[in-house]
Write a structure and sequence with these properties.
The chain is mainly alpha-helical. About 70% of the residues lie in helices and about 5% in strands.
Length: about 150
């Protein structure tokens, strides 16, 4: 029975999405070129390496990246008070592409602490784009909804 109470419906939706996530993770862990089963994980060192060094890290990273993208999208929508705000309409993606393009055009192939300078330039371009859009949308001390 589905509850009509908003909290109950939210819990039900959360549990449904959690089951879908677990199902997708199980498929990603067990489907692949090399067939794996529990017995082979226990006995075969190659199967263990494939599972623990390739498949499991890929699934964990996918979940972490998906959660991070969702949090950033929610933060953008909250910051601009606009449910339609996303990196493309705000120019964040374009700012990042511009920063990376400038770094590539200037031949900045260096690494700083192991991070390619092109990545840092892309991040800086995206950050500048967010600051510019936020300043333009601000009226007084408040961001105007829909601006």
């Amino acid at each position: 029975m589905i509850s009509t109470h908003p909290h109950g419906r939210l819990v039900g939706l959360f549990l449904t999405l959690l089951v879908v996530l677990m199902g997708c993770a199980a498929i990603a862990l067990w489907a692949g070129y090399r067939h794996l089963d529990f017995a082979s994980l226990r006995d075969d060192p190659i199967a263990r390496a494939v599972f623990f060094r390739l498949r499991l890290p890929r699934v964990v990273m996918a979940a972490m990246i998906g959660a991070t993208l969702a949090a950033v999208g929610t933060a953008l929508q909250a910051m601009f008070r606009n449910p339609l705000a996303d990196p493309f309409t705000l120019g964040v993606s374009g700012g990042g592409a511009l920063g990376a393009s400038i770094a590539i055009a200037l031949g900045w192939g260096l690494r700083i602490s192991g991070i390619p300078l092109v990545f840092l330039a892309a991040f800086l371009g995206a950050a500048i784009a967010v600051v510019l859009v936020y300043r333009i949308a601000r009226t007084g001390s408040v961001v105007m909804p829909g601006a």
